[in-house]
Every structure is written in structure tokens, then in C-alpha cells.
Amino acid sequence: MNDAARLAAKRRLLGVSMGLLALVFFYPVVYVVFNAFKTDAQITLDPMGPPTSLYLDNFVRAWTVMEFPRVFLNTLVVTVAGLSGIILVSAMAAYALARSATKASWALYAYFVLALVVPFQVIMVPIAVLASDLRLMSIPGIIPMYWGLGCPTAVFMFHGFVKGVPRELEESAAIDGAGRFYVFFAIVFPLMKTIVATVAVIDALWLWNDFLLPLIVVKEGTIQLAQMVFNGQFLKEYGPMTASLTLSALPIVAFYLALQKYIIKGIAAGAVKG
After folding, report:
1. Is the Cβ–Cβ distance between 79 and 204 less than 8 Å?
2. Which structural domains are found in the chain, ordered by start?
3. Which DSSP symbol is given to 274?
């Protein structure tokens, strides 16, 4: 077997292996969708098989019991407002840090990077106490908390990207009399489209699906918390539970599919440049 044939065989083997691995990761999604169209009795008897008929009462119950429109709107507000704040604050902070050569700026950037390795469970109790003291135990109050928690990762990614933006563009605008804010919003920020999309996808998935912070701060009002109504101590309603999971996943999956092409490109740009 020559080198070309050997390389082709390796590629086919790699393709088959990746396909099988994709099926392994995709099957839980199929499992949830299948069970969303079954009765609880059918789920108990045959949890792995496809539905024999489309049982839609699970979706009706999930919609009414969870008060789905209300919790959907709350989750959407938290996600959109939290994501907007993270992107704006982090992009501006990363730009200022990347364009400053002082020791203080590097120390502050190192502080952001250090925050990446701190597990949320370590700061969970102090955050709950702080939220109580500042009267942030509400849907609007949780939004600035997400800004603080989401900034370290976003600053790290934006910082690497900004260092790859040519300074000549900013210097030319400054010669024409442009101020710092105009240079950032009119020249630098539009060039960050790829990395902004990447941060938006990563943080939107986190904000939409987050359970722990809303649990300790607002106690109720988001989709993830509302789904717990079907997971009681003595009774678990698997049909409505999987239906609620299917309904809640549709918007964020659509958002991910719309921006997925930017993910790898943006991560590579943010991590390698500079």
C-alpha cells in the first residue's frame, strides 16, 4: 500500500470514528425528544425506543404548569441583558488593557485571567450574601452579577484579538481628530465581529441554561428553575419534564446554529493573536 492509499485509509477511519462519536453525543438529544412524545407509562416500559404515536399532552402540561411564557420572557431578558453587558464591558476593558503598556494594566489583566480558574462553588456563598446585602435577589438584580461572572473569559478572548488589530488604523483616526471612544466604537469594535459572535454563543449557552446562580439568588422565575416542578421528591413526571427540556432548548439551539461558524474562528483569533 502506497502513502496515498494509506493516508486515504486513515482519513476514512477517522471519519467513521468521528461519526460514531457524534452519534454517541447526539443520542441524548434524540432520547429527550423521543420521550417528550410518550406517556409516563411508555417511558417506564420503553425509555430508549421511539414513540409509537405523537402524545402532545406533555407539551400542554409543560406550557401551563411551568407558566412557560412568563419564565421564557424572564430567561430571555436575563440572557439578552446579561450578554449585552458582558460584551460591551469586556470589549472596552480588553481594548484599554491591550493598548496600555503599564504594569498596572498587566496586573489587572492577570487578575481577570486568574478568575478563570476559580470555581463558582468557591464564591457561591459570598455571592449570595452580597446579593442579599445589595438587594439583588431578583431577575433584574441577577443581570449585573452575570456581567461580573462573565467578564473574565470575555476579557481574555477580546484581549488577544485586540492585540492583533493594527495600531495604524487607530493612529490614522486620531490624527484626524477622533477621540478614544470614537476610535473604539467606529473602528476597532466592528473589526471584532468574529470574536463578538464567539463570545455571544458561548455566554448565551451559559446564561440560558444556568441553574445554580438563579437557584441561590432569585429562587424562581427562569426556565431551568421552573422545570424542577416535574422533579418532585416522591413523583417525577418524565414526560412533561422532557417536553419542557425540548421547548427550552429550541431557541438557544437555533441561536447556536446561526452563529456556529464563528466559534472556532473566533476562539483561534482570540487565543493565538498577540
Report:
1. yes
2. 1-55 (no CATH), 59-272 (1.10.3720.10)
3. -
d(CA 196, CA 262): 9
Distance from C-alpha of 73 to C-alpha of 187, rounded to nearest angstrom: 34
d(CA 118, CA 121): 8
| Direct distance between the N- and C-terminal alpha carbons of the chain, in angstroms, rounded to an integer | 44
The span from the CA of 218 to the CA of 138, in Å, is: 5
Q: Do 257 and 213 form a contact (C-beta atoms < 8 A)? A: no
What is the spatial distance between Cα 69 and Cα 63, in angstroms, rounded to a whole number? 8
Decide if 66 contacts 229 (C-beta within 8 A). yes
Q: What are the tens digits of pLDDT across the range 71-93?
A: 999 999 999 999 999 999 999 99
Local structure of 236: helix, strand or coil: strand
Which tens digits make up the pLDDT trace of 238-254?
889 999 999 999 998 88
CA nearest neighbour of 199 among 164, 155, 160, 163? 155
| Cα angle 47, 50, 54; round to 5 | 110
